[in-house]
Amino acid sequence: MLFAPRLPADYAVWMGEIKPLSHFQEKYKVTQVFYTDEIKEVFFDQYQATGTPLLFLLHGLNTDSNKYSKPAEFQGIEKFQTDLNTLHPILTECRVIKSNLELALIQYANDISSEAHVEVMRKTKVGMKEYQLESMFLHHTYMYGGCRHCSYTCICATGENSAVLHYGHAAAPNDKSSEKQSAKRTQSYIRHASICDDFLTMLCFNFVFFSVVENPTPPQGPPVFRKAVASSL
């Protein structure tokens, strides 16, 4: 069962066609779809037992932010009993187990992100601005992967900026010029179908680090490492 908002007629002028309920039923493969202003009536119609219906609402601690998720609200919810404790640990555990479709989406996001990082490495030239590296990454993921959004601003750090963990924000907006033989670090986070790929890879440690030189010296490092880098480029 799915509930969709009932949109006003002028929505179509600004945002486009107002989809019928049948559209959401087909898109999300559910058996029934109603409007959100019908929640109370639908729940009472579906309830077959005696007494007051019990609703399980999502409410629990996010251990990363130390904030609690906000339980759902709708007009008439005071007519129901509510349980704020049962659902959160169940859904948290569900996130650990991925379906084959979810795994395929995660793999796709990783593949597109990997391709974009390699594309940036191929096209980076001495004297480029960091935001040009960011632009190349965003273009590739959208043009060839259909991934419209990044979950955070791309980190395209050169030189000493590579040591700043969250470089690329508004106060440090990927605006330095790359210099000859300076280290480059790219870190980006793309979204595809709400699947996020946090691609922190490094040719040495945890990020993509590479160097741009005008006259490269003979290959350095172990043969296996050189082969892996060469095959990616």
TrEMBL record:
EC number assigned by the record: 3.4.13.9
Signal peptide: none
Source taxon at top rank: Eukaryota
Enzyme class of the recorded protein, top EC level: hydrolase
PANTHER family the UniProt entry points to: PEPTIDASE D, PTHR48480
Catalytic activity: Xaa-L-Pro dipeptide + H2O = an L-alpha-amino acid + L-proline
Assigned protein family: Belongs to the peptidase M24B family. Eukaryotic-type prolidase subfamily.
Domain Aminopeptidase P N-terminal per the UniProt entry, residue ranges: 1-47
Domain Peptidase M24: 105-170
Protein name: Xaa-Pro dipeptidase
Entries under InterPro entries matching the protein: Aminopep_P_N (IPR007865), Creatin/AminoP/Spt16_N (IPR029149), Creatinase/aminopeptidase-like (IPR036005), Pept_M24 (IPR000994), X-Pro_dipept-like (IPR052433)
Manganese is among the record's keywords: yes
Oligomeric form and interacting partners: Homodimer.
Keywords: Dipeptidase, Hydrolase, Manganese, Metal-binding, Metalloprotease, Protease
Organism: Datura stramonium
Cofactor: Mn(2+)
